[in-house]
Amino acid sequence: MKKNIIYLSIIILASSCQSKEDFLFELKSSSQTNIEFENNLIFDQDFNVYTYRNFYNGGGVSIGDINNDGLPDIYFTSNQSKNLLYLNKGDFKFQNITEISGVGGNRAWSTGVTMVDINADGFLDIYVCNSGDVEGDNKQNELFINKGDMTFTEEATEYGLADSGYSTHASFFDYDKDGDLDVYLLNNSYQAIGSFDIRRNERPRRDKDGGDKLLENQNGKFVDVSEEAGIYGSVIGFGLGVTVGDVNSDGWEDIYVSNDFFERDYLYMNNQDGTFSEKLTDALSSTSAASMGADMADINNDGFSDIFVTEMLPSDYERLKSVTTFENWDKYKYNVDNGYFHQFTRNTLQLNNGDDTFSEIGRLAGVEASDWSWGALLFDMDNDGLRDLFIANGIFRDLTDQDYLQYVSSEQVLMSIMSGEEVDYAKLVEIIPSRPVKNHAYINQGNLTFKNEDRTGLLMPSFSNGSAYGDLDNDGDLDLVVSNVNMPSFVYENHADKKESGNYIQFDLKGAGLNTMAIGTNIKVNDGNSNYYIQQQPIRGFQSSMDLRPHLGLPSNSPVDIEITWPNGNISLLENIAVNQIISVSQTKTQKTNPKAINPIHSKELFKRLDNNLEFTHNENLFIDFNRNRLLPHMLSTPGPKIINGDINGDGSDEIFVPGAKDSKSTLFYWNDQSLIQDDKFTLMNDFESETIEPLFFDADSDGDLDLYTANGGIEFSKFIPYLSDEIYFNDGNGNFSQSELELPTNSKFFNSSTVEASDIDKDGDMDLFVGERLISDSYGLPGSGVILLNNGKGSFKDLTSINAPELEDIGMITDAIFVDIDNDNDEDLIVIGEFMGINILLNENGIFRLSRSELSNYKGWWQSIQSGDFNGDGLLDLVVGNHGLNSRFSASKEFPIRLYVNDFDLNDQLDPVLTFKRENGKFYPYDLRHNLIDQIKPLKKVFPDYNSFRSASIEDMFSSDQLDESLKLEVNTLSSSIFINKGNGRFDFHELPQVAQFSPIYSLLLKDFDLDGDIDIIAGGNLYNAKPEIGRYDASFGLFLENDGKGKFEVPDSGYGFKLKGEVRSIILSNSNLVVGRNSDSIAIFKYLNE
User: Fold this and answer.
1) Which of 168, 600, 717, 1055 is the most interior residue, by most CB within 10 Å?
2) CA dihedral defined by 77, 518, 356, 452, rounded to 10 degrees?
3) Where does the pLDDT of residue 908 fall: very low under 50, low under 70, confident under 90, or very high at 90 and above?
4) Residue 361 CB-half CA count within 13 A
5) pLDDT for 101-137, tens place per residue?
C-alpha cells in the first residue's frame, strides 16, 4: 500500500507540472476519466516470479467501439483481478461496465487482448489470452461475443479458441484470403529456461500442450493448421510479440514473432497458398536477443513495412552499469553455431529494403536502448506525416540488478532464505529492487533518426507494459492508454489538434462479408508531394490492440488522393479529398482491379550479378582478439581479402590476386570469358604462414612487367615474429614470381603492415613505395609509423623515411593511404588515415613530405578507406573517406568525443586500452562494464567492490591523476563516412555521405563515372561482423552505389542500379568489365558492368 501511494504521488506531481500548452500529451487523472484500473500483483510462497517467470510481464489494453456509437471504448486485462471494460461517454469520461457486460473473465491470469468482429455481425467481440495457472487447469483463453446490447457471452470453446497454453496474444487476419478472419495464437513455453540443452534442435518438434498455433477459420470454427501451414510450435517458443503485416508488399499478410530468451525470432512469409515459409535468417542479418513487444509500420514513407522490436538495454548510463550483462564472445558464437542466429541485447529497427531484406538501423536511429521495454507502438503523435515511437518500460521487481544477483548468490544469504528443504520465496522476492523506469517517446526526425522527447509528456517513470492508441475524443489525433503494474494506468489526451502544425486523415472502413473491419486493407494517400501508407491491422505492440480506424498524419492541409486496396484486391480511388476529417469508406463501392505491388524503381541497371561457379571461399584463420585483450570493442584480425588485378603475364587480360589469411595460401585467378578460373599452378614462397593485408602489383625492377609487393601483418602475430615481414616477388614476365631477399619495409623492427602505395616520389622514373603500419602487436593504441621506400630502379628499396618524411614516425594506427596531387602542383602528395587519426596530408616538396597543417587533420575518426576524384568538376581533386559510420553504439563529436586511455594500469606489462566517452558534465566514462574492466585490470575490484559503487564512476574515479597524466590519450570526433570538397589553398568543405552510407563501416571504395553522365560516382562496401556482443555486429550494408549529381553531392538510388550483396566487403575492383568483390570468409562476388 505504501508503494502505491508513492507511485500515485509521482503521477500527481508529474501531472501537476504539465499543461496542455507545455506538452503534446496530457495525463488525465482518474477523477477526470473515471478510469481506476490498476494491475496489482501479490506474490506468495507458491506463486511468484521464481515459480512463474512471467509474473511481472503485465497486462494488455484494447481500444475499440463496442457499441457503435462512434466513441472508442477501452478494455484492460488484469493478471490477478477482474479485467475491466470502460465505455467511452465522450469528453474523456468513461464508465466501468464490466459487471453488466459480463467481460471480467474467470481465468487465473489474463495477458493479451484483442477486439475483433469474429462473427461478422458488425459488433466488436473481445478475445482474451490467459496464462499463469502453473499447477492447475484454469488458463483457457476466453472469447466474449458481443450481443449488440453492451452484454457479452463467453464462447471460446464453441469457436475452438479455448487454448490452454501459456498464451500471450492473438492476431486475427485473413491469411488465406478466403474472406474470413483466421488467427495466429502466440504462446509462451511452460518449460523452465535452465532445463534446455540448446545443442538439441527443438524448433521443428511440436509441443502438443503449448507452442504457437495458426488456426484457420473453417465455417466459424477455428482449426489448428499450424503444421501443414509451416508454423513452428515447439517448446522453445517464448513468444512475447506477434506482429502481422504485408512485409514484401505482395498483398498478402506475413507474420513476425518476437521470442524471449535464447530462441530466435521468426519471420513467416505468406506463400499465397495457405502456407508460410520461415525466412528470418534470409531476410534479417541480426535481431534483438530477449525480444519482447514489436510493431510493424512504414517509418520513412517509402511504402514498405519496417519492424521494431523491444529488448532490455537501458538508455540511462547508471542503470546500464548496474543491471546489464552481455554474453561473452564464446557464448554468442555457441548460440550462433547451434542455430539461434545473431542476437544482441538491444532494441532493433529493421528497415525494409524493398527486396526481401532488412537493414538493422536501431543504433543509427537512436532507438536501440530504452530499458526493460515491453510495448512498442509506431504512430504519428504530432500529425506531421512521420510515424513516431512510444515504448512502455518497467519491471516491478528488477531481477537483472547485478548487486542483487551477487548478494543472493552468496552462501550466507542462500542459507538464510532456506527453510528446511524449501526456499523462502517471500524473503527472496522482497529484496529484489523495485525502481520505476521512464517510458520513452521518440519523435521521428526524418532521415531515419528519432529523438526521445520530454516535451511529449509521456516520459513518466512507471512499471508500464501493454499500451494502445486511438482517437478517444474524435479530434483527429491519437490518444494513448498505458497499463501499469502496481500503479494506476495512464490515459493521455493528445493535444496535437491544438498545435499550429499538423494535419490528418482518418478512415472508418466498412469491410465486406466476414471481414467487417477490413483487416488487411492497404491505404495510400498522396498530398501532391509525398505518399503516405498504412495497413489496417490493429493488433500491435505488447498484448494490445488499437483503435480500428486507420489514422495518417499529414504535413499540410492540401487535399489528397487516396487509394484503398481491400483484402480481396479490389481498389477504391478517392480524389481531391479534404483532410482533417474522418471519412467512411465501404468495400462494396470498389473498382474490381488487381492491385499493383509496390516495387523499387529500376530506372537503370548498371550492374548484373553473375552466377559464380567458382569453388573458392576466403578462409579467415581462427583467432579471437578478445581473448588477448578483453577491452577491444572490435576484432582487428579480419582485414582481408584486399584483392588486386593486373596483367602479370602480358597476354592482355587481367589476372586477379586474392591474398590469403594466416595459414591460407594466396590464390591467383584468370578470366575465361565472364568466369574466373583458379590457377592451380600459382604459388608464392613463404606465403602460407604470413597474412597479406594488402598486396600491390607494380613494376618494381623497371623491366616492363608487374611485380608483387605483399604488405604483411596481423594482430595474431607477436611483434617479434618474422612472419610480419613484407615481401617483394619479382615477375619473370610470364607470371612466375620469385621471392626477394630484401628485409621490408624496414630492417629495424618487425612491422605490422596495413597498406602499401606506389608513386615516383623522387621523379627518377621508377616506382617508390609508402608502407603504413596498422598497429604495434599486443599494444593497441600505441601509434604505428609510415615508411618511405625509395627504389634504385632495380627493385632494391631503401628506407629513407627519416629524410623524406620524418613526420611519419609514430603518426598513428594507419589503415589506408593514397598518393594524389591534392594541391594541384604536378606532384603526388601523400594522404594517410587511420584509427584515432585525422586525415593527414603530407605535401610533396621535391620528394620531401611535410605534414600540412590542414584542417582535415582535426577530423579524428576511425577511418578505414580513402579515394580521390574531382567530384564537382572544378579541376581540384576531392576526397571520399570511409569511416566507422553512424549505425553504432558509439557516437562522437567535437563537443563530445570518444577518448582512449592507454596505460599499463595494473603494472602487469600489458597495456590496457580503456575506451571512454564524454558526458555533459565534462567527464569521461568507460564504455565497458564493471566485470569486463575487472577481468582486464584486477585492482579495480577493490576500488569498486559492487556495481552500485561503479555505476556513476568516471575515468577519474577509476585511476589516479598520475596514471591518467601518464596515459596516452587518443580521441575521435567524427564517425561519419564523408566527402571533403577541395576548395584550394588547403581548404576543404566537409559533407557527410548520405544516411544509407552510414549504416556500416566502409572498407572499400571504387570511383568511376559508372552511369556515363560526366561525373564521378562511388561504389562502396563494408560491414564488420566480429564485434563484441555488447557492441553488436555491423551488418546493415548491402553495398552502395552513390550517384553524383554533378556538383559533388551524392544520392543512393533505391535500386542500387543492380549492385547489392551481403557480406563483409573488403575490396572492390573493376576487371574485364566486371566488378569483382572480395569478402571476408566468403566467396568472390562478380557483377557485370553493363556500360562497358
Assistant:
1) 168
2) -50
3) very high
4) 26
5) 999 999 989 999 999 999 999 999 999 999 987 777 7
